[in-house]
Amino acid sequence: MYSEFSAAQKNWDRLAEDDPLWVVLTAADKKGGGWDPEEFFATGVKEVGELMAHAALLNVEMARERALDFGCGVGRLTQGLCQYFDEVVGIDISRRMIDLARRYNRYGDRCRYFVNAKGDLRQFSDRSFDFVVSMITLQHIPPEHTVRYIEEFLRVLRRGGFLVFQMPGRPTKFSLRMRVLARRIMPSPLLRLYRKIRYGDVPRIEMYGIKREKMIAILEGLGARILDVRPDGRARVEWESFTYWVRKP
Questions:
Q1: Which of 12, 53, 134, 212 stands the most exposed, by the fewest C-beta atoms within 10 Å?
Q2: pTM, whole model, 2 decimals?
Q3: pLDDT tens digit string along 129-175?
Q4: Whether the Cβ atoms of residue 229 and residue 218 lie closer than 8 Å to each other
Q5: Dihedrals phi, psi of 183, to nearest 5 degrees
Q6: What's 11's domain CATH number?
Q7: What three-state secondary structure class fits 230?
Q8: For residue range 81-114, what is the model confidence (pLDDT) as tens digits?
Q9: Are 166 and 243 in contact, with CB atoms under 8 Å apart?
Q10: How far apart are CA 205 and CA 212, in angstroms?
Q11: Residues 6 or more apart whose Cβ sits within 8 Å of residue 14
């Protein structure tokens, strides 16, 4: 387990070295340092505003004391959340991303960033957040770890707390479905060896999915109240993708 998360941390640190804003938000015309930081962070403010507006449409009332941004990268959504919550925490597996997020932070001690390179959120106590959000992050994490993180999201939420996360479902192309299936059944050491032989030491952005009906069953099994599930177009075009709106009873 340790080696797997260490390898992922090394991979994302390397991805963040040359073009960190594009790695977070991979717009085709922004590759190679094309993101202006002001424009980049404005997308986070807009997206958080849309999330809050949709929460209002769902008649969700929540406390606005503390929020968690899982997979925060350089803080694109984290900074936007500071307009709605008294305190916001961003976590990411990449040390490099967290260093940059702290540098870009405009909210002082109201916004804090931490490295989290393990398969749980044990650095946070039970029922310590009112809101948890994770966008375009879980899609880069193997499904078995994603399920564990969702359990942790619900653990750290206060009663009545609100969880919003995005996750791809099925690949839309048959060839990709076959590759995903092969990746799932191949033992992890063999898969790492295959990638090393084929791609060398080049850092990669991996994509994973959990079928919509399976994700709903997982959430219901954890006792979560599902308020809404809707297609979002946030994953690559080769994947269907959904945003899940969940409340902790």
A1: 53
A2: 0.89
A3: 999 999 999 999 999 999 999 999 999 999 999 999 999 998 876 54
A4: no
A5: -65, -35
A6: 3.40.50.150
A7: strand
A8: 999 999 999 999 999 999 999 999 999 999 999 9
A9: yes
A10: 22
A11: 203
Which residues lie across from 242 on neighbouring strands? Answer: 167, 231
CA distance linking residue 56 with residue 78, whole number of Å:
20
* Whole-number pLDDT of residue 2: 47
In the numeric block, which tokens belong to residue 175?
């060839």
Domain that includes residue 30, residue range: 2-247
Look up residue 106 and give its amino acid.
Answer: R
CA–CA distance, 153 with 129 (Å, rounded to integer): 9
Specify whether the CB–CB gap between 168 and 209 falls below 8 A.
yes
Q: How many domains does the chain have?
A: 1
Calculate the alpha carbon distances from 243 to 54, 119, 146, 170, 176 in Å: 11, 22, 14, 14, 22
Identify the DSSP state of 248: -
3-state SS class at 214: helix
The answer on pLDDT for 193 being more than 70 is no
Query: What's the token pair of residue 70?
Result: 């899982």
- Annotate 147-170 with DSSP letters as a single string: HHHHHHHHHHEEEEEEEEEEEEEE
The model's confidence at residue 236, banded by pLDDT at 50, 70 and 90, is confident
Amino acid at the residue 37: P
Q: CB under 8 Å to 138, separation ≥6 — which residues?
A: 71, 146, 149, 165, 166, 167, 208
- Tokens 């879980």 sit on residue: 138
Decide: helix, strand or coil at residue 112: strand
DSSP reduced 3-state for 52: helix
